[in-house]
Amino acid sequence: MTVQRLIQQRIESEFAPQQLWVENESHMHRTEPGAESHFKLVVVSSRFSGLRLLARHQLVNGVLSDLLDGPVHALALHTYTPEEWLARQGVPKTPSCVSKVGIR
Fold it and tell me: Disulfide-capable partner of 56 in 39, 44, 67, 79 (CB 3.0 to 4.6 Å)?
């Protein structure tokens, strides 16, 4: 099973999200082709209601702790309540982290 699929299954099981995006962004970094080390995770769940951002991230990190200790090098977390998501209306964009050598 892929790392991306493991992340998806665990988040679905733990948070019963109304919306979920798990994007492998490894290709935007200096990684080998087919790498699964950098992810963006967007989770919309009523489980986040009343929680500050840090507490939300701690919950998600706890569910994925073994993956964060292993194959996952970076995880961009975007956690919303359903009400926050309605106000936001869209998945956050991720800037490219691959630098161009020789350009200043």
Answer: 79
pLDDT tens for residues 34-79?
A: 667 789 999 999 999 999 999 999 999 999 999 999 999 889 999 9
Specify the DSSP element, H or E, that contains 9.
Answer: helix 3-15
Helix H, strand E, coil C: the string for 28-94 is: HCCCCCCCCCEEEEEEECHHHCCCCHHHHHHHHHHHCHHHHCCCCCEEEEEEECHHHHHHHCCCCCC
For residues 75 and 7, give the distance between their C-alpha atoms in angstroms, rounded to a whole number: 11
**Mapping DSSP to helix (H, G, I), strand (E, B) and coil, where does residue 22 land?**
strand
**pTM, rounded to two decimals:** 0.80
Q: How confident is the model at residue 103 (pLDDT cuts 50, 70, 90)?
A: very low
Are 83 and 14 within 8 A, CB to CB?
A: no
C-alpha 70/C-alpha 85 separation (Å) is 30
